[in-house]
Structure formats: structure tokens, C-alpha cells
Amino acid sequence: MMPAAGQRPDYEALGLTDAEFDLICEKLGREPNGVELAMFSLLWSEHCAYKHSRKLLRRLPTEGERVVMGPGENAGAVDIGNGHAVAFKVESHNHPSAVEPFQGAATGVGGILRDVFALGARPIAILDSLRFGELDSVRSRHLLDGAVRGIGHYGNSIGVPTVGGEIYFEGPYEHNCLVNAMCVGLAKRDEMVRAAASGVGNAVVLMGASTGRDGIGGASVLASAELGDGDEEKRPTVQIGDPFEESKLMECCLELLQRGLLVSLQDLGAAGLTSSAGEMASAGGVGIDIDLARVPLREADMEPFEIMVSESQERMLGVVEPAQVAEVLEICERWQTGAAEIGAVTGSRRVRVLRGEEVVGDVPVDALVDGCPLYDLDPAEPQGWLYGNADVLAERVATATGAVGDPADPSAILLALLASPSVASKRWAFEQYDSIVGSRTVRGRAGNGAAPTVSDSSDAAVLAIPEAGNAIAVSIDGNGRRVACEPHTGAVEAVLECAQNLACVGAEPLGLTNCLNFGNPEKPGPAWQLDRAVTGLADACTALAVPVVGGNVSLYNEGPDGPIYPTPVIGMVGELPDPARTAGSGFAREGDAVALLGPFSPSLAGSELTKLRGKLGPGLPEPDVDGVAAACAVVRDAVRAGRLASAHDVSDGGLACALAESAIGGGLGCRVDLSPLLDRGLPAEQVLFGEGTGGFVLSGERGALESLAAEGVEVLVIGEAAGEAIEIAAGEAQLSVTVKQAERAWRSLAERFELAS
Amino acid sequence: MLWGVLQFPGSCDERDALHACGLAGEARLVWHEDRDLGGADAIVIPGGFSYGDYLRAGAIARFSPAMESVAELAAGGGPVLGICNGFQVLCEAGLLPGALLLNDDLRFVCRQVELAAHGDPPPPGGASARSRFLAGIEPAERLSIPVKHGEGRYWAPEGMLDEIEANGQVAFRYTAGQNPNGSARDIAGVLNEAGNVLGLMPHPEHAVDALTGSTDGLRLFEGAARSPA
């Protein structure tokens, strides 16, 4: 395993540069041995050290009066009153999912759940943000099917509801799909713990599953001939999830925290014991000794470095006062979850790895965790459109209309847009998730009969929190295509979209988490996208006064055809006082007025229609951020006051699609005249199908809608909810489809792509 | 009435069941290793994935010490309600006829469904007429309750199906077009011959509040609590 004397180890195979290796030697005062090199190579990877993104992330606003825990903890948390907080985080599991979608997505869910219950918060909701190539690709359908089954397998089995999410299908994700999972947990503030080890002499207890060789070749490049014995490279590199193991581990950890038996708790994710022990020691300003002879193993002959970097799932590391170790082990036994005292907190500020009496690794915590050099990017704006374009409108119109539609006819275009996989209902996927366990999921006002089990619309999910006497709303969003058009504006829009989703259910944003999915940061183009998008994120969060309380970065997302669309996925959590006072997205009553509220200035740039026409290119109009923030406040207050019968934000597919979704949701048509927008000089097609932030489609009593103008936002009453058809007049353009036709197109995803069974 | 809600490793809906039972009496959790049911008058075996359900849903849970006591309670006429995984456990334990197989499309499904109570048509004087869980629910009355399961396709040999129909042991049937899993004869829930043990795939504990769906499920808990033993 060790190189011959005088020969430098092959650190490049582990992803370290010459300069980084020299720096490690300098910090240690000698060359690292094999165990130490393995530890450094992982903690100094982009995944753990954020070496290409950390400087950028400093731009994000992280403070706010409701923030309980910010970046640096396992997850962020905000106060929701009455002694309670919600913890949340979104994280990627992209590369494992591209290799093996079922286990990749399942372990993505398992990992984010552990991040949340590590704080002492009981997970109460999962949301997912998925990206695949176009659905007519066999590969994309395979990845979609596997990822949806994997998310369901883990979330359903562990009893945490999957309450929302979004799925986009775009060519640039063909070889590099994105699977981002977000978890939201509820905690009593006085039972929460941080991930900082403290108390010299305290015991370090490893709980949960035993440690195996799985995952060693996955997130790292360790399956190299120089380090391994050659066998492990044949093993699957994707970790295998076991939700039953995690269920027991979760209940056990929550009970231990409730009883006050843990000083601190940390999950084992990427880089396994190395990162958990290193980060806990770093956060607490202490050292940790780990005796590998006491780690429960799946295979007795594991090498020390394998034990230190194994990514076996369903494991947690806790710090326990010596007097309480026996009680902790007893409770673990009761939950039938493994537990072993494997080490101790020391005052050395070093991570020492022992095997019995033998010291097999000894490194300073500071060097290991915070010693990695941080790099500046070398960004340069790409010239022109980096991605493909294909004109598929005629084909899509023919499919959506049974070959009778004319691609120039707005009615036919509407049906094609509604049937477009990124816009269409994802009920096929969402029905495979338990969305109701926990009895918190507010299922809205029933339009006709019982409430649907899952919401089709992209607006926020609402969860009742009787413990705090209120409710929270959660939304996840990030349209990579628009970020590709203009990274700053696209990122701003992603934040605004979440804020609009929350406003539709009467919620005020408390905090957000993000997952930055980008290409190779060492290339100028993706570096420019990342740089601009982070600034956009920061600008939007500052304008809305919403702190970023945590997140994750996933770089190097590229396939043979180039980088993915730059995709910052935003997860936002808000609060509303009364879960009974929310608005649905569907029209609710015949005869209600329909209004367009907010600074909506539609453009075809980056829109779904422009994509179908194969005319995508750089550039997006600047949104009116302050105007959108003001509109969100007005809608939020109106929903809370019960003045609206429905609220839905204008998003993918533009105003015509938003109106159609409200009509489908309520099973009620509408008659709408958009000439006030045409009077501003906008072409009909731009008004109907143009996209941009700031628009809300509202319904309710005419007087109530008109009175919203007094709050200083633009309100146009554009028609009424009535009949069985969606009839929209935009000057010369007349659009008319029945609600049934629209619904058939919108719900065609499973049938059209034979996903149903 | 004092309800006991069983908790196995891997149970998911035990807190939801506890809440629902609490709306129709007192309720407490019963740990799977406890032979003592804590004086419970009625038992709910909740949904979830007991022991991971890696072998066959409910196949391990039926051997738990608590299940021995549940069988004794059932034999004495005490009300026992198995929901989803609990239904699977009761079938595995032989307290209810039939078995639950993988859904016909091999996918998990979470959906609000409509049920018809007492079989539709119910035989007069059968098990469903005697069941306390169905007290106050008229024959053929429609209830809206969600399902969420991957192994919910009710199956029994034809002869056994004829028999349980004749005995009035069909407690709930999915109404036309609502069968989410390919269950034989649209059966969603069955009773034992005496009518005191009920198993069903839909989740009545997730239908006790209009805010989170419907209140139709609450009627099962209230029926059992209010009707005379």
C-alpha cells in the first residue's frame, strides 16, 4: 500500500495537485502515510472543501433574526415560534444517480434525512428537484423511473412524506441527470444540538449500520491501483440504502437527544468517518482519537484507510459523556441499532487514528478540515449559446392535438405547451410517494369532493405545525434553462419563483437553502455561470431579506456533449399563521373574477415556447425585484385574509398555461381578455406564452381583487371563471380549448411515454 | 375506550393512529416486545414497514410478543384494527382471511379513493352488521379515505372469496374505477367472522381532519368507541 522509500505517492490519482501535496507535507512536517493521504484527498476534494466555491459563497446573506442555525451546521434552521424551529437543507446526489438511479436517489434521500435529524429535528417533509434529458430518450426514462422509485422506496419506508418537487427535462442533462433532495424537520429549540465535539474525555460513539467497503470508489478516486489491493475496484461504487436501518437509527437518535444524552451528533456522509470526526473536532476546537479495532465491520480484513473513508450508509457519530455511555448503548440496543464506543474527545486538536495500540494516522485537525487552499475562479463569459437547439414545435403540436393542430394556432400551441414534459402534470411520479404520513400535509380546499392526495401545481406545499400553533410552506425551484440564458437573472428568478409560490399559500419566507449544480469550475464558461449565479442569488436574497441558512455545491456536472444547464436549485421555507387560510391554485367558484396581479412583463426569451421552436439564445430581461417582493406581500396578505378564492403564479409556459392550470385545478373554465397587456405594445404571442417573474393569476370577488390595487401593485381584472372552456382573447389571437382537452394534454406524460407500468 | 397502538421497528403511521384514536378515546403506544397491552380495550396495528418488510410484508411482525396478546384480545371479542401494514400483519397471523400481494402495476400508490361500506351489497346479519368499527355507517355508504401502499392487492382463493362475501366479511370495497391495486372483487377491507377484527388497506387515521383530506375515517374509530361491547 505504501510507496517504496524515496518515491512520492501517486497523489494525482487521488485528485490532489503537486502544490496541494506539498502543502500537506508542509503542514505535517513530513510526507503523509497512506491512511493520512486518503483522508486528506477526500477532505481536500471539492465536495468536502468547496475549494472552488467557498469564496463565492461568502457573498450570500446568512443572517436574520429568525435564524437559529446557519451554514456550517448539518442543516440550517429558523425559528417558527412557541419554542420550535424548522431545520432544512437541500443536497445533490447527481453522479450516483446517473450511474444507478434507484440507489443513487434512495441514498440521496437517506443522506439528507440524516443531516436534519442530526440537529435533533424530526424530519416532516421531503421535496425533490430532478433533471433529466428529454423524455423521448430511453436513457432519460430509465433514469426517471429509477430515481422516482428510489425516492419513494426510501421516503415511503421511513415514514417521512414527500410533499413536493419539480422535474424538468432538457437535453443538457442527458448524461448527467440531477437528483437534489431537500428535507425539512421540526425541532424543539431546547433539544437541538450542534455538530461540535466538546468535553475532553467524552466518548465518541458510532451508531447505526456496520462499516463496509461500499462507496469507497464512489465519491472519491480511491479505487486506484496504487492505494487498494485491486479488489475493491470491482465492487459497486454506489452506496446501497437501507431505510429500515435508518428508521431505527432516526428514532434512536431522536430519543437520545430528547433525553439529553448526546453532547453532539453528526451524520456520516461523503468521506465517512474522516469527515465526521474531522468536522466535529474542528467545530469544537478539540481533537478526536478513533480506534479502528472497535469499529463494527462488515468484512474483517478491511484496511485502515478503507474504514476511515467508507461511505456505508445509515451511520451517525455522537459525543457522549462517559457516565452516560451505558444508557446510550442500552437505548440503541432497544431500537436494535448498532452502537460502539470507538474513541474519545481529546485536547490535542489532532485526529489520531489507532488500530489497537498502533497509531496508523495522526494529523492536525486544522490542516485536515480548514487547510485546503481556496481557489479563485477564472471566469469568462461564453460567446453565444453553449447548448443545442431543436425545432420540435410542429411535432409537439401534432402529438398534443392528434395531428389536427396548426403550429401557428395559439390553441394548438397551448396544448403542446401543457403536454410538454417540463410543464405537464407530474402526478404519475408524485403518486408514487407517500405525501400524507405525519398528518401535517394540508391538502387544500376541495374543488369538488375530496381533496387530491397530491397537488399537481407547482405552488408550495403547506404543513400544519400544531406544536407551534401555525404552519409552514415549502417550495423548491430552479429553471436551469433560464439560468443558462443569463445566470444572474436566472438565479434571481429562481429565488423570486419560490417567494411567489409561498405567497400563493399565504406564507412569508423565513429562509432558504440552495444546491448549486454547475459544470467544471476550472473552465472559464461554467466558472462565469457560477460566479454570476451566486451573485444573483445573493442579490435576490438581500432584496427579499431572506437569509441563506445552508446548502450544497455540486460541480463538474458535464457529459460528453458539455456542461449541464447551470442549475441553482432553491428550497424556501416560509411561515403562515393559519393552515386553514391558504388558497388553492384552481378556480373555485363559477362567476368569480380573474385578475393578473404584479409587475409581469412577459418575454419569449428563454421560454418553453422558444425552446420548442429551437430558438434559445443568451439574454433575459431584468426582473423588477422590488416590485415582485411587493406583489408577494400583497398576495400573501390577501390569502391570509381570505380575500382570494385562488392564487397561482405565472411560470413555465406563460400566462396562458397558468390560466389553464387554474382551470384544470378547479375543473372550471375561464373567459379572459388580455387586451390591456396588448395595449402596452406587446405582441399577442408574447402576452400569451411569454415568461418572466412577478405575475399572479388570482380569482375571487371582483371588488376584493380590484381593492388590491390600493396596496400599490398593478392589478388587472382580465375576465371571469366560468364555463367548460379556457377562452382567451389577445387582440387578433383567439384561443379556445375545453378544460377537458387541456387536462388531457397536461396529464399525458405517463401515457405518452409509456411510464404507467 | 382505551386504545393501544402497536409500535414495531419500521412502523410509520403509529403517531397518526395515536392521534386518530385520541379523538375517540384515550390512546397509548404499545411496544412490540411487550406482552402486556397496558389494559387496552382495543388495538390498532398501524401502517408502515415493520422490520423493513424485506421478507414479506408483516411476515416478521406477526411473531412479536405483542401480537400474541393481540390474538388473545381478538379471541375474546376485543376490537382489533389493522391498517395497511397492520392488515398485512393480521393476514400473516391468520386472524383475517386472504393475503396482500404486490400492486398489479408493481408501483407504490398514494391516492384518495372512494370506498363503499359493508360490502355492497351486504348480507343481512353478517359480520359487517356486527362490527363495532362499522357501527353508524350505513350499508353502501361512500367514504373518502386515502391509500398508500406497494403491496395492497387483496387476494384469496375463489372459494374463500365466496365464503367471506356470504358471511358479510367484506367491510369495504373500492367503488367503480377506484381500485388502485387490482384487488380481487375490489375488496379494500375484510373482517373476521365475528366482526371484531378489521383489516383494510386504506388509512382511516389519515382521514380524521378536513384540513388534511377528509373526516370519513374518524367514523371507524368513533363507531368502535361508542358502540356497546
What are the defining features of this structure?
heterodimer; A: about 750 residues; alpha+beta; Phosphoribosyl-aminoimidazole Synthetase, Chain A, domain 2; 60s Ribosomal Protein L30, Chain: A; 2 domains; 7-stranded mixed sheet; 26 helices; about 35% helix; about 25% strand; B: about 230 residues; alpha/beta; Rossmann fold; 9-stranded mixed sheet; two-stranded antiparallel sheet; 6 helices; 11 strands; about 20% helix
A few lines on this structure:
The complex is a heterodimer of chains A (757) and B (229). Chain A is an alpha+beta fold and 757 residues long. Helix content of chain A is 34%, strand content 23%.
Provide structural commentary:
The complex is a heterodimer of chains A (757) and B (229). Chain A has 757 residues and is an alpha+beta fold. Chain A folds into 2 domains: 17-49 and 201-346, Phosphoribosyl-aminoimidazole Synthetase, Chain A, domain 2 (Alpha-Beta Complex), CATH 3.90.650; 382-752, PurM-like, N-terminal domain (60s Ribosomal Protein L30, Chain: A). Chain A is built from 26 helices and 27 strands. A 7-stranded mixed beta sheet of chain A has the order 8-10-7-11-9-12-13. Chain A has a 7-stranded mixed beta sheet with strand order 22-24-21-25-23-26-27, with helices on both faces. In chain A, strands 1-2-3-6-4-5 form a 6-stranded mixed beta sheet. In chain A, helix 6 (101-117) packs parallel to helix 8 (243-258), helix 7 crosses helix 8 and helix 14 (410-419) runs parallel beside helix 25. The radius of gyration of chain A is 26 Å and the shape is globular. Chain A starts with 17 loop residues before the first helix and ends in a 5-residue tail after the last helix. Chain B has a single domain, classed as 3-Layer(aba) Sandwich (Rossmann fold), CATH 3.40.50. In chain B, the strands form 2 sheets. A 9-stranded mixed beta sheet of chain B has the order 2-1-3-4-11-10-9-6-7, with helices on both faces. Chain B is globular and about 40 Å long. Chain B has helices spanning 14-22, 65-75, 85-92, 127-130, 158-166, 218-226; strands spanning 2-7, 26-31, 42-45, 80-83, 99-101, 109-117, 142-149, 153-155, 170-174, 187-191, 197-200. Chain B is α/β, with parallel strands linked by helices. In chain B, a hairpin with a 5-residue loop joins strand 10 and strand 11. Helices cover 22% and strands 25% of the residues of chain B. Chains A and B meet through helix 7 and helix 8 of A and helix 1, strand 6 and strand 7 of B.
